[in-house]
Amino acid sequence: MVASKVNVPDLSSLGRQIREERNRRGLSLREVARRAKISPSMISQIENGHVMPSVSTLWSLTTILGMPIDELFNHPKSARNQAQVSAQSAPGAESPIQRASNRERLRLAAGVVWERLTVRPDDKVEFLKVTYAVGAESCPEDSLFRHGGKEYAYVISGKLGLQIGFSKYELKAGDSVSYGADQPHRLWTIGNEPAVAIWVIVNRNDDNHVEIRDGS
Q: 74: domain range?
């Protein structure tokens, strides 16, 4: 069996895109750190490619900066814009099919992997395959985070823990869930096998409010 080739953005590319967007919006490190409730040094390390952010930290930064998660799966904006121009100049040249062999992947801290399931970015919808490794979590146990939009998920395999406010749930293969992402929430793996799910996030950047408690 031939392994699928999956494109994984490196840390320097991820950090560079966050830094460029922060500078474009005229926001200082300290201001973004204040809004995200993390230290300026942490943001600096992320922007310089020294640290991979956790799920909650990445949600926080991209929401504050108004960046679709799709932005982070792509090449630098200049290359992406050139590709979009080329596609527009040659109607029908770009296939609507996202092949498994060249799917874009983003590895986050704590053993979480996102894979983009669309060929091109979408400003309103993020369509992802999400894998939580054994022991992985979206944020520390004493923390919850929230953002704009609504989330929908379908678990393919393994078990996921989900906390929404004070309520905790266990999702297993075949289960699905939907909830407003503006409610404080947290996700983690249950058991000794990875949890894999299909995730859809709608209108995430319609609300720029983010909350992180006691950690990132």
A: 11-212
- DSSP letter at 137? B
CA distance 175 to 177: 7
For residue 106, the tally of other CB atoms under 10 A from its CB is 19
CA 103 to chain centre: 15
For helices 11-24 and 40-47, angle between their N-to-C axes, nearest 10 degrees: 120
For 186, which DSSP code?
E
What is the Cα–Cα distance from 188 to 134, expressed in whole angstroms? 9
Q: What is the pTM of this model?
A: 0.79
The pLDDT score that the predictor gives to residue 3 is 45
Please name which of 165, 189, 162 lies closest in space to residue 177, comparing C-alpha atoms: 162
> Residue 136's domain is classified under what CATH number?
2.60.120.10
- Grade residue 110 by pLDDT with cuts at 50, 70 and 90: confident
**Assigned domain for 208 exists:** yes
